[in-house]
Specification:
By secondary structure, the chain is mostly beta strands. It has a domain of 275 residues. Helix content is 9%, strand content 47%. It has 2 helices and 34 strands. The protein has a 34-stranded parallel β-sheet that branches. It is elongated, with a radius of gyration of 27 Å.
Length: 479
Amino acid sequence: MLPRKECCNRCLVGFLVSWLLAWSHVALWAEASVFDVRDYGAVGDGVALDTAAINRAVEACATAGGGQIRFAPGRYLSATIHLKSHVTLLLEPGARLVGARDPNLYEAPDPPQFMPEARWGKWHRALILADGQEDIAVLGEGVIDGNKVFDPTGEEHMRGPHTFVFVDCCDVTVRDVSFVDSANYAIFFMVSSNVEIHNVTFTGGWDGVHFRGAPGHACRHVDITDCRFYTGDDSIAGRYWEGTVISGCIINSSCNGIRLIGPAEGLIIRDCLFYGPGLHPHRTSDRYNMLAGINLQPGAWDATKGRLDDVLISDVTMRNVTTPLHFMMKTGNSAGHITVTRLSATRVYRAACSVESWAETPFENVVFRDVDVEFEGGGTVDQVSGEVHAPGVDARPLPAWGLYARNVQSLALEDVRLTCRQPDQRPVMICEDVNDLTLDTFKFPARDSAATSIILRQVERLRLRDTDTSVVEIDPGRR
């Protein structure tokens, strides 16, 4: 038998040898799992078309079971790259993937036939494309340049390929990269789940992130965190979402900040900054003004059936928007619980906040809590008269300067403060067809003693606390 000390030493040596052998295998595997596009013929000079070389690298990586596609510093000109399961595109600092100028070189996926968008054909073309894949990623500190590849035969006689499109995919990660000058949406995906978009910068183009599901086929579990949007069109948009978190983002747009055009359940928007005017023009109108900060409008664009529910908007700051909040729904939709808490907005220049149902059903439960909004004001008495009609696709001026509510079951304003930079002759708030209205510490500027600040029409139950009741007008003919 060996002495105890010698036995321990031999065990230690054996362990170290085994450990070194194991890590050498890991290192060899790690090295083998990186596929440099230059090894497959990519030039990276911004002149040669590297599409075929990049796709050869992706195919080799996928055949090997997955890994990373390495883009070293350089300028890689390409048309459609087909991203496969378990493959990561890694753009190192100094690497730039640039869209080829000919829009006819780009390919499109085959969206499921249950998607209304399936008939749109080439509209889905992309620089990076994944169809029915899993565990895919685009990472690194490089740049993905859509190169403004406009197409006179495309939508609006100018839109070309999107930059990154994925359909029916799961476990998708986009981190740390920058998207610039997309010829349509920067990231567009449909019926996909478990998507993480983190620390990404979007500059120019149309929508930054746009994602769509369909009835019974929602996009599920999408996190958009710590991103920066400087977009010409809506920064974040889409419909049929379930379990979406938008957090820690800077949102600058020449259109809407967040625009929901259909149902969503379990939507959280928190700790975000929205500000206008846009730094980059709205491509189709060449304007820069920012529209609504958050625009939730199921059914505004086309008929969508489903529910808007379990929405939390918190710790949000806005400046220079048409309106902070435009909540609206049309026929076929319903809405449950929406809570807005700790929101501050300044220099609101066009429209009151609104909660308005033009559907058969009301908004069920809406709460504004700890909200400060400063409006530009300057409205006249002439703007008060006339019937309010259903909005189009954007917020519009209203006969109240602060808040307009229509067809709401329960509306609570708790610790809400509305102010004007200049006097406004319209009432601060108009509520129509509201079953339960709670005004708890609702503050607004004093007006002439004869002026009405709050107009209530068909409000069934009213609860007041620490709110000036002398300026409330209840229309007796419409209760």
